[in-house]
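Q: I have 173 residues here and want to know how they pack in 3D. Can you give me a structure?
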Amino acid sequence: MPIIARAMFRVSRSARAAIAVALLGTLLAGCAGGSAAPVSSSAGPTPSNAGPASPVPSGAGPVDPDAVACQEQVGAAKAVRNVVGAIKVGPVLPAGVAYFLLGARDTYAAPGVRDAGLAAARREVVAAIDDLDSQGKAKLPPGGDPLKDPVQLDPARVVAAVNAVDRECAGRI
């Protein structure tokens, strides 16, 4: 096993997430043709690496799924905003955007949220992430490669959707 891979197993989940976010910035911003700007210097856990939002102490009552979803929102929103930051810098690789938003998409698509407004806002984020993926495919030149051909995407819908979840979660965490 390579040294880096062995070292990653010894690193905490949050540290692995921070490394992944740093790699995201490097990968996506590097696609902008040298006009790279830092995406974020304060990386938090990404949803795909985040553990349970809050451990339930033994003897505690049931966990509110809406509160858990709002706690997960913190990491998921950060991951989306980091990708949006790279998109705003310049053209990005569609495959990179899809890859780095996969964990956030899974978080927002997870079932169990009871509040109708919060559930609808989370579904809109999933649809907005899917829209970014569709934009990436549609903007590729004929015969283009999503791993090699950067395209300019419009992140307005995903930003609005994440902000809507933030509003729904206000006061829940």
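Q: Anything worth noting?
A: Residues 65-89 form the longest helix (25 residues). The chain has a mean pLDDT of 78.
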